[in-house]
Design brief:
The chain is an alpha+beta fold. Helix content is about 40%, strand content about 30%. The protein has two domains: about 35 residues, no CATH class; about 190 residues, Alpha-Beta Plaits. Belongs to the adenylyl cyclase class-4/guanylyl cyclase family.
Length: about 230
């Protein structure tokens, strides 16, 4: 009986760990109690989007299994690194990687700093990811960041997902799509949020045309003077 109880505890822990990888702990706790998870409004968060440069052509030149292995290598690398920061991975869709800071747990004004440090780390890390079927090749990342308000909540019943909604999400995605290989493209809002401690090396990109937004003044995030990127 004691052994069966221990086995049951172990299985329950494994199930909880898996659940917490798919949903925030606070949300999972409410769902386990059959409580309705109310959507929550956040005044300020910072959202990061990235994707792989030339992913379509890379995927076209290899088998589906090789694509899965390549993305798995990349995301295992990213997932292990983002644990060092106060961020929450929202989802991966194909080669797109989405991370947020400032929710579900609020962290004051630290969200832009946490995402900025993380993004510098990931852009440095991607060059070390091996493509199994292309040993000589190296992946390149295109990244974008925006800061602003958003709403977060759980949608769906069969496969509930924790999703973010609002213009901040769309703008962060636009920052990524208008970025360049191995560059971190940030909005004016994120630039202003990072100015507080003067720790970042930032370069003005200028005004660019952003679909659905018109002209936007944007910047390149180049580095952090006080932060050594992990190897």
């Amino acid at each position: 009986l004691k052994k069966k109880t221990e086995d049951l505890k172990r299985e329950r822990q494994l199930a909880e760990d898996l659940l917490h990888q798919m949903l925030p702990k606070s949300v999972a706790k409410q769902l386990r109690k059959h409580q309705k998870v109310e959507a929550e409004n956040y005044d300020q968060v910072t959202i990061f989007f990235s994707d792989i440069v030339g992913f379509t052509s890379i995927a076209a030149s290899c088998t589906p299994l090789e694509v899965v292995e390549m993305l798995n290598n990349l995301y295992v690398c990213f997932d292990s690194r983002i644990e060092s920061y106060d961020v929450y991975k929202v989802e991966t869709i194909g080669d797109a990687y989405m991370v947020v800071s400032g929710l579900p747990e609020r962290n004051g004004s630290r969200h832009a700093d946490e995402i900025a440090k993380m993004s510098l780390d990931l852009v440095a890390a991607v060059a070390q990811v091996v493509i199994p079927h292309m040993p000589a090749g190296r992946l390149q990342l295109r990244a974008g960041i925006h800061t602003g308000p958003c709403v977060a909540g759980v949608v769906g019943y069969k496969m509930p997902r924790y999703c973010l909604f609002g213009d901040t999400v769309n703008t962060a995605s636009r920052m990524e799509s208008t970025s360049l290989p191995q560059k971190i493209h940030i909005s004016s809002a994120t630039y202003d949020a990072l100015l507080t401690d003067g720790a970042y090396e930032i370069e003005l990109r200028g005004e660019i045309e952003v679909k659905g937004k018109g002209k936007m003044k944007t910047y390149w995030l180049l580095g952090n003077k006080n932060y050594s990127v992990q190897n």
